[in-house]
Amino acid sequence: LHSTSRRQRQMCKETDAIAQNAANAVRLFKNDAYLAQTRGIPHFEIELGKAPAIAAPILRTRIRETVLNVNGVTGAEVDLTFDESGRVMGGKVQATVLESENVQIDF
């Protein structure tokens, strides 16, 4: 949803809605959603306490699979980054939605 200058609500574009659904799916931890305990990525099992060289390929695959399971997403490429000083893993997903438009999802 977007607000206009008159504070009226407008619906967002379909591609924006799909991108938001994909971003939510990537950020959802397994057992975190009260009504959908099995949905989400098991971040605690994958990357916490593991060396980045071990965790990154597994996490990249899980994120790609998660994004591809979102309705409207037809392709996904995942690029992970790791900040050694802060031990923070992040990245972005380049997703193809509705078979033609590319959107970027940062996490």
Question: If helices are DSSP runs of H or I spanning 4 or more residues, what is the number of helices?
Answer: 3
Average pLDDT, to the nearest integer? 86
For the secondary structure, the number of strands is 5
State the end-to-end distance. Answer: 21 Å
Shape: globular
The major β-sheet equals:
3 strands, antiparallel
Beta-strand percent range: 25-35%
Q: What is the multimeric organization of the chains shown? A: single chain
- Gyration radius (Cα, Å) is 16 Å
Percent of residues in helices comes to 25-40%
Judged by helices, strands and strand pairing, the structural class is alpha+beta
Main sheet: strand order = 3-4-5
Q: Which series of helices and strands comes N to C?
A: EEHHHEEE
Layout of strands and helices, then pairs:
Blueprint: E1 2-3, E2 9-10, H1 14-27, H2 43-46, H3 52-68, E3 73-83, E4 88-97, E5 101-106
Antiparallel strand pairs: 1-2, 3-4, 4-5
Structural descriptors:
single chain; 107 residues; alpha+beta; two-stranded antiparallel sheet; 5 strands; 29% strand
